[in-house]
Structure formats: C-alpha cells, structure tokens
Amino acid sequence: MREIIAILRGITPAEALDVTHALLEAGITKIEVPLNSPQPLDSIAAMVDAFGQSAQIGAGTVLEVAQVAQVAATGARLVVSPDTNPAVIAATVDAGLLSYPGIFTPTEAFAAIRAGATGLKLFPAFKMGLDGLQAMRAVLPAKMPVYAVGGVGPEGFAAWRAAGAAGFGLGTALYAPGMAASEVGTRARDAVAAWDACA
C-alpha cells in the first residue's frame, strides 16, 4: 500500500464521491476529510458506504474525544489530528480506529506512542526539515511510522523518505475546494508516480 494520505479539506458531500473515485483510480487508498470541512460526517459516511471496502477513509482535525465517537459511527477507519491529545488517541484506539496524531517534538512523539498511536503525523513538516526528522528518527522506535505533512509535495518524496518518513499527507498538492475530480486524479497520479519512483 502506498503510504499517501489524501487530505480533502473543504470538500462537500456533493463532491466527495467523485473525488474519492478519482483518488482510488490513481492508486491512493488513504483519505481523510478534516472536520472543519462543510458537513464532514456526511461526506465521510457516503465515502465509507461507497468505497469502504477498498480504501481507509476517516477524519482529520479531530480535536475532542466526543468527535471520535461521531467519526466511528460513520464506519470510518482512521482519525488524524494536528495535535497530540492522549485522550483522543486512547478513544480512537478503544473504538478500533487507526490513530495518527500530530507531533512536532520528541516529547509529543513519545506521548503519542505511549497513548497507543498507530503512526505519527509530523506537522508542519517543512518547519522541522529533513535534518530534524533524521535526528528524531534516531530516538523513535524503528517500527513507528512517521508521516510528513505540511509543505511536502511529491517532488520531495525521495529526500523525505531517505530522512526517515514512512509516508505523507497531501492537502493542496492534491485537492483544493471546488477543484474538478479530473484534476484531482491528475495530481494523484503524479503523486503515485513520485512514490513509486522512490519505493
């Protein structure tokens, strides 16, 4: 599986299925709808119903424990956050969902790991830089995946993977509100090609 998470911030329920189909056709099978998007739970539920057997679909910008239950009720499989909140992580794991909390320091990373995180979202990655990730990877458990999110596009995949990133979260590099599904598909294919080139 390609470790690319599509971040569909701002997507509407009317767009969700066409955009999801375009992503899957291109080879991206991890998708999050941030909860600060319009009617996010409606989009997630529709996406899960249509594509839940072939994709890991979930929510981003999950900040509160109560939101975890709302996301789980849609049938979603993953929860992504911009911060490290042990209570949110624990609730996510207890609900049987994959947990990707946002971290920026070793302290946050280890707090997330102790709370049961599935993987770590390094955010904003461009502020940490390649040397920062390399330094952090030296102390993190080898099997704990780190996803570079924020300011990292397909052109940087090879360098970030060499520095220790296991995967990436792509937002505006893949999708912006109102973008045609065909354009999302084109961008997704470019991202997949960049991933495959350094696999």
Automatic annotation (TrEMBL):
<dbReference type="InterPro" id="IPR013785">
    <property type="entry name" value="Aldolase_TIM"/>
</dbReference>
<dbReference type="GO" id="GO:0008674">
    <property type="term" value="F:2-dehydro-3-deoxy-6-phosphogalactonate aldolase activity"/>
</dbReference>
<comment type="similarity">
    <text>Belongs to the KHG/KDPG aldolase family.</text>
</comment>
<dbReference type="InterPro" id="IPR000887">
    <property type="entry name" value="Aldlse_KDPG_KHG"/>
</dbReference>
<comment type="subunit">
    <text>Homotrimer.</text>
</comment>
<keyword id="KW-0119">Carbohydrate metabolism</keyword>
<keyword id="KW-0456">Lyase</keyword>
<comment type="pathway">
    <text>Carbohydrate acid metabolism.</text>
</comment>
<dbReference type="InterPro" id="IPR031338">
    <property type="entry name" value="KDPG/KHG_AS_2"/>
</dbReference>
<dbReference type="Pfam" id="PF01081">
    <property type="entry name" value="Aldolase"/>
</dbReference>
<protein>
    <submittedName>
        <fullName>2-dehydro-3-deoxy-6-phosphogalactonate aldolase</fullName>
        <ecNumber>4.1.2.21</ecNumber>
    </submittedName>
</protein>
